[in-house]
Amino acid sequence: MKSTLTIITVLTASLLAGNVSLAQDYSGNIFDGHNDVGACKLKGDLRFVPEGQEYIVTGSGDNIWFGEDQFHFAWKKMKGDFILTADVSFIGVGSHEHRKAGWMLRQTLDTDSPHVCGTVHGDGLTSLQYRTGKGAETSERRSPVAAPDVIQLERRGDKIIFSCAVSGNPFDTLMITSGLTDGEVYAGLFICSHDNGVSESARFTNVRIIKPAAEGFVPYRDYLGSNLEILDLETGLRQVVFQAPNSIQAPNWTHDGKYLIYNSEGLLYRFDLASRKPEVINSDFAASNNNDHVLSFDGSMLGISHHVADEENKSIIFTMPAGGGKPERITAKGPSYLHGWSPDGRWLTYTAERSGEYDIYKISVKRKKEIRLTDAPGLDDGSEYSPDGRFIWFNSARTGTMQLWRMKPDGTDQEQLTFDGYNDWFPHVSPDGRQVVFLSFMPDVKADDHPFYRHVYIRMMPAGGGTPEVIAYLYGGQGTINVPSWSPDGKQIAFVSNSGPTE
User: Fold this and answer.
1) pLDDT tens string for the chain (503 positions)?
2) What is the CATH number for 130?
3) Boundaries of domain holding 89
4) What span, in angstroms and rounded, lies between the C-alpha atoms of 14 and 180?
5) Contacts of 287-290 spanning 24+ positions with Cβ under 8 A
6) Same domain, 315 and 424
7) Alpha-carbon distance 435 to 429, whole Å?
């Protein structure tokens, strides 16, 4: 344990001192440069607003069409595969219905360069526009989505993928094969006023440039960097509050609202939201903790899942003081993966493998006697008490896809709450008991799998049931939101997204 603690303490110290390369620094402007492309009459501009991590792009220009372009471009040179995501909105009513803004890939900064752009027009028209050769005519594929709030442009192998959505809805996607799928390109945000004598502006928020896992990536051996993020549920704005070059996972929000607790490389960390610095939580011998760590409802205790080396490295549940201390063993057998405390602090609920089946159990913290709650075929996981103690929420693959369920604390009246084609994991009930947030994997992920480094949604729905809405579009998965992560006032949630280095 001593050597592991020393290594990670050194890593943290280096990270805080700025000596470790991060995936991307979102505290400042992430673009390499910005300039007008083509003969723009009015000089464009880029303004970064640190408080909201937002970008205001201003520019003129007649069009991005035919064989040449005029617009303002904020760019970053990129190689390989990458994902560009942002929320977009025009500022003001505008002077032309075909003013346009969005993400662009460009071979050069010449006016007639080959390009691909995911474009939102002032009148709501949304399209994937592209020029395949120098000076060639621009082609277009239109999206059925009108006036999207969220746009994403991805280069993946020999394909360019444009996704867009009105906030709350899933993405609609267009895909082409383009000449801009190899080598270095200029990638960034653009605006064109469609009237060279007029300037227009667009606001871009939740801007992310992501390097996904490379081909040959091996889960649980290879890791990407991590962004610790906070989402404001009223505004939809996300803020990156901390970055690490390694894997950090599963933030809990402390009862006083001052800290986030996460795990990294077997240890637990307390992240100070005021100073923006983490520190290791003393967990004594427990130095192989996974991302199943949960605070008690009163904030005094921390439940952890520690892999015991001399028990075939199986996950065993322990409890310890939230401020640190020697853990007390709770489950006699493993693997056992903690997910929730009862509001009165008397019970823990968890997923355990017993006789080849993974089901949900609960256990008395004092008596340490486990009780099986589910026995349906397929994986049951992610169990968590509602704040009023009336229900235990969980996710189950018993219907063929992973869906959300809830039951009474004794395991009776098991009721399905989601029914669509996504694979839904880790339901977390808001402090007032009215809403549930959860992680949704795309249909191509196996129902009983929750892998790292995928396109995922964080969705929210009323606790009584209803149609879920997407509240965050991100690249993440395992470790993103495995544990309860609501702020105490119910206005924000914390989560982790991922990216490799973009430099």
Assistant:
1) 333 333 334 344 344 433 344 568 888 899 999 999 999 999 999 999 999 999 999 999 999 999 999 999 999 999 999 999 999 999 999 989 999 999 999 999 999 999 999 999 999 999 999 999 999 999 999 999 999 999 999 999 999 999 999 999 999 999 999 888 889 999 999 999 999 999 999 999 999 999 999 999 999 999 999 999 999 999 999 999 999 999 999 999 999 999 999 999 999 999 999 999 999 999 999 999 999 999 999 999 999 999 999 999 999 999 999 999 999 999 999 999 999 999 999 999 999 999 999 999 999 999 999 999 999 999 999 999 999 999 999 999 999 999 999 999 999 999 999 999 999 999 999 999 999 999 999 999 999 999 999 999 999 999 999 999 999 999 999 999 999 999 999 999 999 999 999 97
2) 2.60.120.200
3) 33-210
4) 37
5) 287/1, 287/4, 287/5, 288/313, 289/263, 290/263, 290/315, 290/337
6) yes
7) 6
Report the alpha-carbon distance of residue 384 to residue 378 in Å, rounded. Answer: 18
Residues 113 and 183 grouped into a single domain: yes
CA distance 442 to 445: 6
Q: Which pair of structure tokens corresponds to residue 478?
A: 């395992």
Tokens at 280, concatenated? 């290791």
